[in-house]
Amino acid sequence: MSVIPIFKKSALSTECDQCGVLFDLMHGGVCDRCQRILCRTHLHGSWLRRLRVDLGAPSTCVDCRAGRTPAPPPKRSRPGAPPPAR
Fold it and tell me: CB under 8 Å to 38, separation ≥6 — which residues?
């Protein structure tokens, strides 16, 4: 008899625009202000903030809440991407 998985790990992942770490989309998100895709550390900063977002608070990143200008995303090479222009 085969087992049907109910809670399966997501197959979708992306890179954090701040640190470049590959993460599951369920553990991060997009900042409402700067529109960057961020891991949970750079988006929420703490579990308490994550809880507030889950209860309806706006999803703003640590940099935007602190009033800092977000750093530009790091330049990374992705598989299948054309080489960077020189």
Answer: 16, 17, 18, 28, 29, 30, 31, 61
